[in-house]
Amino acid sequence: MTEVFNQISIIILIVLGVSLVMRALRQPLIIGYIISGIIVGPYFLGILPEVGTIQTFSEMGIALLLFIVGLHLTPKVIKEVGSISLITGLGQIFFTALIGYFVSIALGFEPITSLYIAIALTFSSTIIILKLLTDKEDLDTLYGKISIGFLLVQDFVAIIVLVIISSLSEGGNFLTTIGFTFLKGGLIVAVLAPISMFILPKFQNFFAKSQELLFVFSVAWGLGLASLFFYAGLSIEVGALIAGVLLSVSPYNLEISSRLRPLRDFFIISFFLLLGAQMAIGNIGNLILPAVIFSMIILIGNPLIVMVLMGFEGFTKKTGFLAGLTVAQIGEFSLITAALGQKVGHITNEVLSLITLVSLITIGLSTYMVIYSGSLYKMFSKYLSFFERSNLREKKKINKNIDSILFGYNRIGFGILNSLKSIKKNYLVVDFNPEVVKDLKKMRVPSIYGDVDDDSLLNDLPLDKLKLAISTIPDFDTNELLIETIKERNSDAIVIVRAHNIEDAMNLYKKGADYVLTPHFLGGEYLSNMLREIKTDKEGYKIEKDKHIKMLKERFRKGQYHADN
């Protein structure tokens, strides 16, 4: 026991050292975790404890991660992106598997081996994308919701594949096995759903009186249901996700999510360590060429497939592009499927190593692609019009007599919209989520579906007559574009944008913003009150701007760079 403790302590120190190097080089920490796994693995230091210990940590991290995702998957969100996620998820699986199979055959692999490779190429890493989207705070954007949706569709298909392989290896009737397994899962959900909807709310106020008790209850609920689904023949991942969904209707779902994140971050490191440690580099020379070919299929082919499918469904080229980048890697279910295939004798160790190498290449490169997706979109946007249909989900019918525009309707935008109503402005809401626009129209709120990065949209808006423009969009590049475009056409317009941290806020002020909303330091309610009092008085915003800059500089001196400090 002491030996395992010492090994884990040394491994954590190595992870810390590599992470510090990654941070100094401004590289994603995920890459550092995988590199740490290679270092502590059998080909270098060989100090990784027995796989069972780290595997348990890894499974807990995965379960907590998916439990937190489930907490955000309210019935409204599922309804919002359910259909497009199903279409995109199944479509991408079909076309990627088809391409992967014939490429494998062309490279000389046997049919059964080609089938396993093709299947492995279809499953992206839900865990890694969840981590990246959470870090970017893009989990609640339209492309983020759609991405998580079709990644979960992939996971569901992966579970079916794993059940089939297990059934074939045992010689059983896999149709009967699948049917019985999902019947048990359905019965569990049928029993737990009424409990979560009608019984738990009566006890949640009791749990919420103590933050520690709420924390323990949340962990017990998430891990407990994950184990229950595992014993029912499904997987820990499915159980943890459903546990989160069942608790998503709770008024404390966001509080639970925030409290579980540190615990999740600690345990999820084990998953990436295992990923690196499993890399078999002894025969890597023979695997380079096929690994590069398969990696190109994943890095280029998968995003193109998603963009085509989402384009046909009427989404903008930007939404399709950003969502497409999230499937540019193969992840945990690909490795699990390949490992099971090797265990039952369907594929060799060399093929398993090939799939692992493809996983590491694609995870490494796609991490950068997702992190710098905004910059990549600006680079390629003029070539992506092919993927966007002329009849988008919401046609733009713009009233030219507006004097105020709200870009992005969300929790912050709700209060701001009420302020615009109270000061009796001719306003318009622009949002790139078609479901949000549909809801606004039901409330008779003037609104259009549009992507701010779309030049044609900005050209159609009456910016030259604008008195006030407010953006609650969190993306820095988008807000920078808005400031430059509006100020170029109308220097008298008041432009208010949003920033995540002090550095971004100061840069946006330098770009010409009249006021920068920093929700972590000054909430949306503060801006709503400002709007009611100052209205469109430019001098009033200059006074508030100076006060805000002074406050941000003071916080910066104290080391409060963003909300986490």
> CATH topology of the largest domain, anyone?
Na+/H+ antiporter like fold
Count helical runs.
23
Q: What fraction strand?
A: under 5%
Strand tally is 6
Average pLDDT works out at: 79
* 3D shape: globular
Main sheet: which strands, in order across? 3-2-1-4-5-6
- For the record, give the distance between the C-alpha atoms at the N and C termini, rounded to a whole number: 36 Å
Kindly provide the radius of gyration, computed on alpha-carbon positions and rounded to a whole number of angstroms.
25 Å
User: How can the largest sheet be summarized?
Assistant: 6 strands, parallel
Helix/strand-derived category reads mainly alpha
| Total domains | 2
CATH architecture of the largest domain: Up-down Bundle
CATH top level of the largest domain is Mainly Alpha
The percent range for helix content is: over 70%
Which stretches are poorly predicted, pLDDT < 50 over at least 5 residues? 561-565
The SSE string, one letter per element, is: HHHHHHHHHHHHHHHHEHEHEHEHEHEHH
